[in-house]
Every structure is written in C-alpha cells, then in structure tokens.
Amino acid sequence: MATNWASLLPGKFVVFDGPDGSGKSTQLRSLAKLARAASVETVEVREPGGTSIGEKIREVLLDPANCEMVTRCEMLLYMASRAQLVEERILPALARGAFVLADRFISSTLAYQGSAGGVAVKDIMAVGDIAIGGRWPDLVVIFDVDWATAQRRMTRTLDRIEQKDAAYHRRVREGYLEQARAKPSMYLVIDSTAEPQAVFEALSCGMQERLTGK
Questions:
Q1: Residue ranges per domain, the chain?
Q2: 196 with 27: CB under 8 angstroms?
Q3: Using an 8 Å Cβ cutoff, are 121 and 170 in contact?
Q4: Which of 32, 92, 111, 181 is deepest in the core (most CB within 10 A)?
Q5: pLDDT tens profile 22-54
Q6: pLDDT single digits (tens) 124-177
Q7: pLDDT tens digit sequence for 11-23
Q8: Burial (CB count within 10 angstroms: exposed 0-12, middle 13-18, buried 19+), residue 172
Q9: C-alpha gyration radius of the chain
Q10: What's phi and psi for 183, nearest 5 deg?
Q11: Residue 128 neighbours by CB distance under 10 Å
Q12: Per the CATH hierarchy, to which homologous superfamily does domain 9-212 belong?
C-alpha cells in the first residue's frame, strides 16, 4: 500500500542519523521531495548548523585545524548549535504544523561524543534536555552501514570528525545500534548498504509502521 505522506507527516519531527557515509542525506532529500509533492510544508535542518549562529559553530567543529579540541568541548558546541536550531527553526515549524526533517540530532552526540568519545550518557542527556527544551523527535531513523562500505562512499575531502580512525567509527556505529536496542519504539534501523531505491522503500514501510502504529 502506498504511503499517505499528506496525513502521516504534518506536525511530526523526524531525525535521519547514522555513521558518516551511511547515505542518510540522500534519503533525506528523497523524502523531503515526496513530502513537498504531497503538499506537506517541509522544513529541512542539519546539524551542526541550520542557523546563522549554528553555521559558525559548524565551521569551528569540523575544521581539521582544530585538532586539539577535546571531546567534552565538542559535545557542548554541538549542543549550543542545537539549542539555537530548536528555538529558531524547529519549534516554530512544529507549532504551525510543518513536518521537520533533521539531518542528525542528539542521537549523533550520543554515538560520536558518547559511545566513541567517552562522554557519559547521563551528561549528554542532561545537557541535551536543556538544549532542546524537552522536545524529543517523534522518530529517529538510523541508516546502518559498516565502516568499509561507508569509507568507499566518502570521496570528498574529509572533515575533522570523518578523519578519525576506523576503531572510532566502529564505536560510532555500535553506539547507534545500542540506542536503537534501548529504545526500539523511538528508533527505526534501516540497512543502508543496499541501492538507494531499495533503502527508500524500506524507509517508507518502516516510517509508516512507526508513525501510525500499524
């Protein structure tokens, strides 16, 4: 049965997340295009960034020259960008019934700075709840991919986080899967090693099941 995006998406806050090279951004563009074709007001945001202030923070976070940055500083900068994004763009969009589609959110911080970086989950969650004012996503979609496949897909110049070693990125992947196991009703895991169209079909079916409860 075809997914009825027009009734499914308005007022929802959905996050697309996953390891670097997982293909989540491609899937985000595809879903946003379909949502707009169904006459759903769609607000796309990315992290870090998405606002004038957030984009400045993004430059600092991802600049390879900032190699001395400690993980706790990383975590707080991501949260600062997120706080601005939630207040300036996400909450107003949801208030008017728009569909908000985010490229990364707190799930990224839990995986990268938490599982891979060693910052305690309780610390991330405490700061995160302040940053987002308690407005958690309706659904977090994790696009799961192994590091070898992800690495082959990343042909551009790598940013500071992407340049970290394979062991780090394997911990990131496991961190995402741990989150999904801990909160199966909030997370949807999609195997993103397949061709983009097959991934999107799995995404469509999974989102319909999770957002309708059917």
A1: 9-212
A2: yes
A3: no
A4: 111
A5: 999 999 999 999 999 999 999 999 999 999 999
A6: 999 999 999 999 999 999 999 998 887 787 766 677 888 888 899 999 999 999
A7: 999 999 999 889 9
A8: buried
A9: 16
A10: -135, 70
A11: 22
A12: P-loop containing nucleotide triphosphate hydrolases (3.40.50.300)
Q: Which residues contact 176 (CB under 8 A, 6 or more apart)?
A: 17, 18, 19, 107, 111, 115, 142, 144, 189
Q: How does DSSP assign the chain, residue by residue?
A: ----HHHHSTT-EEEEE-STTSSHHHHHHHHHHHHHHTT--EEEEESS-SSHHHHHHHHHHH-TT-TT--HHHHHHHHHHHHHHHIIIIIHHHHHTT-EEEEE--HHHHIIIIIIIT---HHHHHHHHHHHHTT---SEEEEEE--HHHHHHH--S---TTTTS-HHHHHHHHHHHHHHHHH-TTTEEEEETTS-HHHHHHHHHHHHHHHHH--
**Cα 42 from Cα 210, distance rounded (Å):** 19
Taking CA atoms, 54 is separated from 5, 71, 73, in Å, by 30, 18, 15
- pLDDT for 114 equals 98
Are 61 and 76 in contact, with CB atoms under 8 Å apart?
A: no
Pick from 4, 95, 9, 100: nearest CA to 50: 100
- Cβ atoms 61, 48 nearer than 8 A: yes
- Phi-psi sector, 72: left (phi>0), alpha (psi -120 to 50), beta: alpha
